[in-house]
Amino acid sequence: MHFPDDILDHKGRLVYGVEVISSTLLGVNKSKFPVRHGNCFSMRADNGHSYRIVNFYLENLEEGIRREKMTLPVRLYILSDPYKSGVAIIFDPKIPTSWYSAQFCETCTPVEYLPFPQRVSHALKLESGTITERKYGDRTMIIERIGDAIDWSTEEEKSPIVFAKYQPMIMEPIVCMDANVESEMMKTLEAE
Fold it and tell me: What is the mean pLDDT of each run of 10 residues along the chain (192 residues)?
């Protein structure tokens, strides 16, 4: 869990999220809470703006409400321009720290708002070629290759492990995107 170092010095950036207005649609294992991987979401705040929440999963918010341990509104801290819709984190004393995400969502969070360790990781991924960036209008699209771009594995480590005649299946993640983003991504991949 990470909060900006000067979070307590900027009370004007605190607002209250009053309702969830959108979310991603990933399938999530909800057998144990808090979940460690889940759906990102956006909230409408009491100031009339909406914010992508980058440090909390929707499933954990819904479960906290279902268990009647918390209710909406929840306190938010705005990372982006406080006078426009943008990016925020949940920063609420009603919520146990173990229920927050361990890291900010690197898909939903603009790089400049990532905590320092995640910005360093992002820079290393760019340099190694694990990710590439492409501008798409006023947004930056990040294409991430599965696995490390640099492979230190031995031939023995690369061979599949066989357990009782079953070989592991490697499945690539399914990413949902609109047609424009998908076509831009395909152009970038073809250019490489």
Answer: 68 94 93 95 97 96 96 95 91 94 90 90 89 81 69 70 50 54 70 68
Cβ count near 76 (within 10 Å): 24
C-alpha dist (Å) from residue 102 to 15, 18, 20, 46, 133: 22, 24, 21, 26, 24
CA–CA distance, 69 with 142 (Å, rounded to integer): 37
Residue 96, amino acid: P
Q: Can you tell me which residue has the tokens 């990933």? A: 26
Q: Where are the alpha helices (DSSP H) in 51-178?
A: 58-66, 116-128, 155-158
Alpha carbons within 13 A on the beta-carbon side of 8: 2
- Count of C-beta atoms within a 10 Å radius of residue 92: 18
Amino acid symbol at 107: T
At 104 the pLDDT is 93
**Distance between CA atoms of 92 and 76, rounded to whole angstroms?**
7
Chain centroid offset of residue 105 CA: 2
Q: How far is CA 6 from the centre of its chain?
A: 22
Whole-model pTM: value is 0.70
| DSSP label of 106 | T
